[in-house]
Amino acid sequence: MESSLSHSLKKHFLLKWASIALLLVVLYGAAFSYLIDRRPFVEWTLIKSGPQDKKVQSHLIKLPDGKVFLINSMSASGSLLFFLKKQKIKDIDLVVLTSFQHSNFVGLNEILGAGIRVKDIKFYSSNTSSNEWDSILPLLRTKSLTPKALSSEESLYENGTTQLRFLSVSADSPVLINLIHGANKLLLISGDEEKLNLHNFRVNCRDFGVDVFVSDSPVIGLDTFLKTCTSFPKNLSEEEGTFKILFKGDSYKWKRGR
Length: 258
Description:
With 258 residues, the chain is an alpha/beta fold. It has 6 helices and 16 strands. It folds into 2 domains: 1-38; 40-256, 4-Layer Sandwich (Metallo-beta-lactamase, Chain A). Strands 8-7-5-3-2-1-15-16 form an 8-stranded mixed β-sheet, with no helix packed on it. A 6-stranded mixed β-sheet has the order 9-10-11-12-13-14, with no helix packed on it. It has a two-stranded parallel ribbon with strand order 4-6.
């Protein structure tokens, strides 16, 4: 009887401490996951005007130190402004314009007119005589904004292991922008994709070694050339709708949503 009772107590004791140990393991795992998710990350959002659209209007980039960049400001029926307001974006540290399309200036006008603060504007254009600025220059002056031309190989952002670089291939080519965040790398083709020299891109793409590739519009024939590159595991240029890519430094994921 005493032996049976002793065995029962021992079993109860072991179950109790096994439960406590299991709970500690679960709590440790949850805490570890939380800390991992709190690592500095880069959030890159491809903004489109609708869920079936492939053409990208703008790219919103949230950087590890809290800075917010916007690449292009194209807006179809106010969709860009709607998105920024929904995301509670009140300040944009840098707007980069990769082309002088009129829609870029319409969107910029909407953003500034809505009271969203823009701290700096940089642009790329092979057409130095473009007069598109005339439509918005008066508003820019009231905001004390002076647009600056991008220079070749210019660093747009650098902090720790995070870099955002403007890569100018030639005056007749679209803009290449390269994001590096830890071990993560992204390459963006923006501007006039029709002028992209695919032969030159194929020769140079091996030097980029990126994880993710995106372009404002699908580039005809690009997939064939991507196969010759050593590190292009994910081409997100054909995906529909607005979605975010979250770079954590040693991994990344992407999800749809507005």
